[in-house]
Amino acid sequence: MHIDLNRSGSKTLPHQISETLSQRISSGLLQQGVRLPSVRSLAITLNVSQVTVSKAYDMLEKRGLIYCRQGKGCFVADPTHNRRQEEGCWQDLYDDYLPRAQLWRNFDVSEVKYPFHLAAIHSELLPLQDIGDTYASLVKEQPELMATYGNFQGDLELRNVMREHLKSRGISLTSSDLMITSGTQQGIDLVARTFVGPGDTVYLEAPSYTGAIDVFAGRGAEMIFVPTDSEGMRVDVLTKMCDQRPPKLIYTIPTFQNPSGVTMSITRRQRLLELARSYRCLIVEDDPFSDLYFHAPPPRAIKSMDPDGHVVYMKSFSKVLAPGCRIACVAAEGNILSRLIAAKSASDLGSPLLTQKAVLPFIAEKYDAYAAQLRITLRGRMEKAAKLLKLYAPPGVNYILPEGGLNLWLELPPSPDIASLHDLAEQESISFLPGDVCYSAETPSRHIRLCYSQMKESEMEEGLQRFLRVLGRFLQ
Amino acid sequence: MHIDLNRSGSKTLPHQISETLSQRISSGLLQQGVRLPSVRSLAITLNVSQVTVSKAYDMLEKRGLIYCRQGKGCFVADPTHNRRQEEGCWQDLYDDYLPRAQLWRNFDVSEVKYPFHLAAIHSELLPLQDIGDTYASLVKEQPELMATYGNFQGDLELRNVMREHLKSRGISLTSSDLMITSGTQQGIDLVARTFVGPGDTVYLEAPSYTGAIDVFAGRGAEMIFVPTDSEGMRVDVLTKMCDQRPPKLIYTIPTFQNPSGVTMSITRRQRLLELARSYRCLIVEDDPFSDLYFHAPPPRAIKSMDPDGHVVYMKSFSKVLAPGCRIACVAAEGNILSRLIAAKSASDLGSPLLTQKAVLPFIAEKYDAYAAQLRITLRGRMEKAAKLLKLYAPPGVNYILPEGGLNLWLELPPSPDIASLHDLAEQESISFLPGDVCYSAETPSRHIRLCYSQMKESEMEEGLQRFLRVLGRFLQ
After folding, report:
1. Contact call for B334 and A89, based on CB within 8 A
2. Which member of A139, A183, A338 has the closest CB to residue B132?
3. Partners of B250 in the β-ladder
4. Which among A83, A85, B168, B311 is least buried, having the fewest CB atoms inside 10 angstroms?
5. Chain A contacts of B197, Cβ < 8 Å?
6. Chain B environment of A104 (Cβ under 8 Å)
């Protein structure tokens, strides 16, 4: 398998190898019982000494992730002890470039009754009838929309609507500075494939969004997680870190951050932009939640203060309108944007035109009134969840109530076995997101993320109570 | 800028650097007047000597692609001689990983009246009303489809339909061996990002599909183009090439190949599969056209003969049903497929569920009858085009009439200046695809590709006559 090694990095080579293998195992990319490459062959593939690979395998064996048998090789451990020693089909030895896949592992459509792991809004709250009506009239009146490859950059009429939308939020750009992507996930992926490569330094908040981490890991980036406090990313700490390792890119979710819920102060936003300008690097400003505030509107977007194109701003409409439509807007200027459009063309030849046209009238005419109502509803839900937490959260469980967004971020008492908690919850048909997938490597996290908006209100309340009981039993 | 150099490759380093820069210029990624990095800084970035970079710049200057000024640096040439010497904004120096983008350059929605460059089927021939009716009833009866993140692998019900579809074409798999992608372009991209990395050898037919070349180039692959004859890829030649450079992957469009129209014989298909098995590598079998035969059905798919998962088979439904819907099916087994699904999750969190459901009933119930009728219609068009070619093609223009698919592949007399022809055609509001974008580097090609199914029949006839007149004038 392919592993991007950073020979001038702060971590030793055996450490880097064992971290990547551990991520591959925990993502399910390396399945239980599968034979790892021999020490000799992996050493040749990675161009390192056999001692280095042996050390990495030792680390993994000590952590119980693999086991080795004299003369037979090393195998991914099977926690049920029902050890298959597979012959190793040719496919197992066919190299890939996927260091981890925690999205795949943790987010795929789940069969649980209480899917707290998924940050989404319940379909009853979404404007599906409006969007559906537009679909119905478009397929009748303009069927050729289904037959047309859209513009790679995205439909111009929709970009005009997005331009006005962003303008009302302090971001003044032209339609030619905007691109439509299939969700923000694709936007992040396009930036990464275009501008990030092996060894490039990417700074992120600690913790950060799993899907972004997967993508940057896939590009072989050196990811560095910057501590945060109640004002968001510690830009002072980041500034010192940049002295050591200049940034290629800084990825941030400044508003109601995913997963922590924290919002970056306006001062830090300004400083972050100054830092990016002085290092001539990009900021990716991922903004799924700024319309979903519960009290005061959040500080203005970093992009609104960006005179010379250092910020690639991403606004998700999927989450708030209809996740299944997969529509997001990416704002960037100059040849940063044109290169992203080039990358978009190679990814999928452009997003479906019909869907772009289907969400357009709603965004143009009704979005703001809808968002105002949605804020009230979500705040109500959050307060219901808060009440339950106050009543039933076991002692030692800490949290800060979010000022917006969709998630609760709970800190458990030291050294919890989150995997066992996950299993226990699953037995009650409850899922949550383990905090460790919000970091790049085996950073032990005692956090978990719960979304309070993905179910009907009554189900959310029922599920949360049930989960807090499970948590109580678990912590005893 | 980043360039993947192959230090053990057959081409010299200056040659590799100049080829990549030339591709970036012809794709429009490097614009006229932009200053290239200094010799010193590019040498440091690429970890090569300054002499190597100087040689590369010399090659480009000799070809007229750049010009250098003592003390000022080297600039991308401006053929209109209206030379801007830009100050170089920070963005120009911000490194990327895009070696070329010919899709972006050549396929974006064009304003020409006769878009012969786009291989598509005119909307009047597509079953848009059927698909539109399904959309209309789905948004009414199951609006929650718009609210749901689909399964990353694709909707199970659609995969069941695809399974039956493939079974009727000799490919027997289970639904769990199939994945839905946003067009075949995304399928190719997923395979490349998962399994192809810098220096990996990818074999393709000479010529091949521009979009696949863009993708493999973006992964830093060493692409090798295998000669073809009337039976398709010369597998005997490929076998010898593999002795020198073992394949990581073989990309083929065996049926009515894009752009050449040639179909691979059954014997070659078998041999190609044997070769892949002996090298334990993957074949990507891209199949957009096998249902669009004009006389006899083409030989069976390579995938239908594949017992141990060496073939990733891709069937486009976009082209034949509704390009704007972006639906394709990828068939692969075991952990080849599971890794592709993991990559799909990081790319876009899955394809839109509503669209998957919207094409489903048509594929299940009406596709075969529709395809039978479409074959007759397309054959009629091709014959109309053939008649015009026979009457009006200037002497020295050669072609073989295709047995299926959507394209004509014309060979012009030696050493034509295709760029000038393109400009001439554009003046008459006609576009075509220049053959050189169907290769990886500056392979001079005297071919052009024309699609005869993208316009109304009368417009196609009018446009083709007009183009052949332009071509006649040009060749005089």
Report:
1. yes
2. A139
3. B203, B283
4. B168
5. 2, 95, 97
6. 152, 341-342, 345-346
Q: How many Cβ atoms are within 10 Å of B120's Cβ, its own excluded?
A: 19
pLDDT band at B444; cut points 50, 70, 90: confident
- Domain containing residue A179: 128-365
Per the CB < 8 A criterion, the answer to whether B303 and B311 are in contact is yes
Quote the minimal CA–CA distance from B440 to chain A in Å.
15
Give the residue from A51, A81, A99 where a domain finishes.
A99
pLDDT at A328: 97
Domain boundary among A344, A365, A386: A365
If you measure CA to CA, which chain B residue comes closest to A27? B342
User: Is the Cβ pair A145, B346 closer than 8 Å?
Assistant: no
In a shared domain, residues B90 and B136: no
Tokens of A188: 């992040």
- For B244, other C-beta atoms within 10 Å of its C-beta total 9
B459 pLDDT more than 80: yes
Cα dist. A345→A60, A378, B100, B211, B316 in Å?
A: 41, 37, 11, 8, 17
Residues A140 and A264 in one domain: yes
B345:A103 CB<8 A: yes
From A203, A288, A29, select the one nearest B342 (Cα to Cα): A29
Cβ-defined contact of A146 to B322 (cutoff 8 Å): yes
Q: Is the pLDDT of residue B86 over 60?
A: no
Dist. CA A465–CA A8, nearest whole Å: 49
A125 inside 8 A of chain B by CB: no
Q: Is the pLDDT of residue A81 over 60?
A: no
- Is the predicted pLDDT of residue A85 greater than 50, yes or no? no
A30, A121, A135, best to mutate vs chain B, most B CBs in 10 Å: A135
Q: Is residue A170 part of a domain?
A: yes
Q: How far apart (Å, rounded) are the C-alpha atoms in residues B389 and B396?
A: 12
Q: Which of A104, A218, A281 sits opposite B341 (nearest CB)?
A: A104
| Residues from chain A contacting residue B341 (CB–CB below 8 Å) | 104
A330 near B CB under 8 A: no
Task: Kindly tell me if the per-residue pLDDT of B237 is higher than 50.
Answer: yes
- Tell me if chain A has a CB within 8 Å of the CB of B91: yes
Q: Are residues A444 and A323 in the same domain?
A: no
Confidence (pLDDT) at B80: 58
Q: What percent of chain A has pLDDT over 90?
A: 80
> Cβ–Cβ of B345/A98 closer than 8 Å?
no
**Beta-bridge partner residues of B181:** B328
Q: Are B132 and A143 a contacting pair at CB < 8 A?
A: yes
In angstroms, the first-to-last Cα distance of chain A is 42
Is ipTM over 0.90? yes
pLDDT digits (tens, 9 = 90+) for A392-437: 999 999 999 999 999 999 999 997 889 899 999 999 999 999 999 9
Q: How many domains does chain A have?
A: 3
